[in-house]
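User: Teach me something about this protein's shape.
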Amino acid sequence: MTTKLTRFDELNLSRLNLISAVDQADVNEWDVTFESQGRVVRVQCEALPKYAVPHGLDSDVTAALLNLYIELGEPEDGRFSVSATTLLKLCGWHNTGKYHATLRNCLERLHTSSYSVSGGWRDHPKGRWTHAKFHFIESLDFSSGDRTGGFDERTIISGRLADSIVASIRSGYVKPLDSEFMLSLSRPRTRALYRILDGARFDPQHPEEPLDTLEVSLIGWADQCKIPSTIPGNIRRALESPHAELVKRGYLRAVTLTGRGKDQMIRYEFVREFTPMDAVLSRRFRTYGVADGVARRLVREHGREFLIASMDRFDVLVRDAVLVIRKTKAAALMHLIAHPDEYPYPVAGAKAASAGGAPAAKVKTAKADRMEPLLELPTLADEFRDLPAEQVAEKAINRLNFHYRRLLDVSDLDALRQALLDGEVDVVKLLEDAVAAVAKLQKEEFARELKWRLGQR
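Assistant: First, the predicted structure itself:
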């Protein structure tokens, strides 16, 4: 898992913004009411006094957890397991003791803070607005080497995302999030504002149509950003530095403030090149392994309709074994997009003519020497060969979690990860035995034996 990919954000979270866009917070609750497309929406947050409301760096953690969940295959139960070191990488943070402590505080804050959304949570497949009450992380467990629960290099974190968030992601109510750009921004409040702006660009009922401009009231925008002030001067100062950086970095073309006092308005003009693809197209490119930066360039060069038609044709040709893969799906698809005339293409009306009894039109086929010969699928040994020990351990745990998340707890995963790092467990045999146990309906027996083996270390 690498942070150099364009990832995704859940649209309800990005629109409503549950993370205060300030570097430090000292309030335990906030309550915001606003009007949206003729509806009155109320969003509330209550936090434990020892943690304060989610803010600042918590935005990095929520973005990382959402994309970790997607990379794990969007399990229906919303559960995830990950090492602290991997989660730190996904957050774009350094793997140091300071950030281990920060990560734990962020997770505790997201687990203990409660949210209530009245009339503003979108059930997009049904076209309805619902009421939602949840904690971002509904359950949280982690392993630790001391009584205080501090994170270290071995820490494994397991948790469960809120049902509302899980249902929304699984329904496809997401948008692209350029996390490489976001993590390159200098301050937590700038990263949070970027994420809020990138969500506000989308019409909640028509998320495929991002805006080029956005105009908001200064006071209302402070509520949206959860900036704890109603004084215009304080709000302007809080936003001044993030605005300047987002303009300098090329995300915003301009930020214009007009009016006086509490009637001031902010007009945002976005740089068109940052207009993200719709989520459906972006997610489909990901299934072929095409990097999102490349996909965005393809959209600009060829347009959405041509790319969808090309992917549809690619799928048909691969399915019918007319087109076979030599290197990767991404490379083959890119060649088809760049050289469409060199690939088989059914003549329009051939199918209809055949159905009517007339001879079917001859299908144009590419020369055999231009087609890519099929390679054997890689084995488990091939997949893990030459990988660093830490990456082997992470991939193995992710694979096991697909079938064994209810049977192996954080202590088991902690011990297994360390055994893999120490070379005491053969990862290929481990995963082959795990899959065989699933096929034989012997998952419980496999889990018990693995626990026993780990206990003998």
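Now, about its shape. Residues 7-274 form one domain. The chain has a mean pLDDT of 85. If you'd like, I can walk through any region in more detail.
User: That's plenty for now, thanks!
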